[in-house]
Amino acid sequence: MAPTSPPTDRRPLVISGPSGVGKGTLLKRLFAHGSGDEFAFSVSHTTRAPRPGERDGVEYHFVSGDDFEALAGAGGFVEHARFGGNRYGTSRRALDEQTARGRVVVLDIEMEGVKQIKSSGIPARYVFVAPPSEEELERRLRGRGTESAESVQRRLDQAKLELEYAKTPGVHDKVIVNDDLETAYKELEDFVYAPAPSS
Ligand code: ADP
Ligand code: 5GP
Q1: What percent of the chain has pLDDT over 90?
Q2: Mean of the per-residue pLDDT values of the chain
Q3: Predicted local distance difference test score (pLDDT) of residue 46
Q4: CA 87, 90, 91, 94 torsion: positive or negative?
Q5: How does residue 4 score in pLDDT terms, banded at 50, 70 and 90?
Q6: I need a labelling partner for 178 at 20 to 30 A (CA). Which of 20, 29, 35, 160 fits?
């Protein structure tokens, strides 16, 4: 049964894991189950091109390389990184504004960003989503049909690094293997709605 009250732990939720593992799929469910105002997805800035169906300001703020550089130079990002030949970053303003409104801000970011958030002093909770196997990850990435052959390869190479980093003891508060979607979703929901340590 879906939770009936908002999460008591209001810290930002940082979700990471290899591209294609199912982070977006799990988050969509989480947002759909909530009442609509307890979570705020942190809409990142990126220099990558939109995929069919992606809308500017919803999945990402799609910006040019120059605009990205300008924002980074002005200290506008709490973290930013390069991934698969593109730049990605979390805007400081969005994080601050949504946190001030009492929302649980959800960040879907890769591991260099995770490291930067960890050293920023922002109190956050960290979830890592792992694939059942590298073969299954490749199947999902190809099956999604959004990437060129070259992009798939880059993402699979990066996945090895993400999986290696995730083995570092204590780096994530929760590791979820996304094999069966229902089971993985339930684990995510239980983690998100678990009572805050001080409550
Ligand atoms: P990410 O956001 O991590 O890059 P997506 O959410 O886009 O990944 O998922 C990648 C693909 O895998 C999508 O086509 C999605 O429907 C599929 N998928 C996600 N979770 C599962 C699962 N548990 N079993 C099978 N396919 C899945
Ligand atoms: P995609 O191109 O598939 O949307 O995202 C590629 C990778 O970039 C994913 O691992 C995703 O989590 C990560 N990503 C998305 N936004 C950000 C961000 O703002 N910062 C960082 N560091 N990574 C991000």
Answers
A1: 87
A2: 94
A3: 98
A4: positive
A5: confident
A6: 35
- The amino acid that residue 196 corresponds to is A
Q: Tell me, what's the pLDDT at 101?
A: 86
Residue 44 burial class via C-beta count within 10 angstroms: exposed 0-12, middle 13-18, buried 19 and up: buried
3-state secondary structure at position 156: helix
- Going by C-beta distance under 8 Å and a sequence separation of 6 or more, which residues neighbour residue 61? 43, 44, 45, 46, 91
> Which residues approach ligand 2 with their CB closer than 6 A?
19, 44, 48, 79, 81, 83, 88-90, 108-110, 112-113
What is d(CA 54, CA 61) in angstroms, rounded to the nearest whole number? 10
Pairwise CA distance, residues 173 & 192, whole Å: 11
The best mutation among 63, 77, 110, 152 to test binding of ligand 2, ranked by most ligand atoms within 8 Å of the C-beta, falls on 110
Q: List the structure tokens of 136.
A: 């299954």
